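Comment thread on ticket #2218

A.B. wrote:
> Attaching the input chain for the structure job we discussed in standup.
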Amino acid sequence: MAKTDPNAAVAPAEQTDRRRKGRPAGSGGGEIRESVLTAALALLRTLPPNRVSIAAVAREAGVDPKLVRYYFGSREKLLLEAAQQLAESEEPANAHDHPVAALEEFIHRTFRFARSAKYMQRLMVEELSAARSAPIRDQVREWSRAPIEFYERLERGAKGEELADFNPLFLHLAIIGISDFFISGQPLIRLLAPPDTDMAQLEQEYERFVTRLLLDGLRRREPAQD
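C.D. wrote:
> Ran it. Output below, let me know if you need it in another format.
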């Protein structure tokens, strides 16, 4: 029987496997980075954020944990980039000139995002907002202000003609909390709803109710005449 030559060339498949476990070589690095990010996105859609560890992401991506650290530096940076990509993957709101229509679409967009990433608020509160890295916290603050800035522009654009004065921060907190609770509070909602309730239909009815509630509450009203 022929002996194996220890100096023989490594098979291509084995070379690829070794590269996935160590520092990347050649042009495959971008693909590995994308596979890691895709794995993190998949886990964040289904698991509480405290279970999305570097080891879990590495297993999901089929790579060595060292590669996760190589491309993203830290778990916090990976989670932030994954969260931003989750948000960007949501269908953007239509650009409406009419302030009430723009607000209505943004409310629906927030509900869609809550459904697509049900642990997002836990990720923001428990992980990213409390990140040990000051630069990460600064990025989270800047990114999280985008909806508030949208509401500020909306208020300025309405010019007091269509929408009553409102606090953009308060409106943001209200819409985030209202949309998120139907997802995060599902066990309690199932207990409160009548037996055999179609939860998907109930969710649609709830979204319509909340939208009408907010729009009616924010519409400008003429002062009552004496």
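A.B. wrote:
> Thanks. Noting for the ticket: The longest helix spans residues 199-218.
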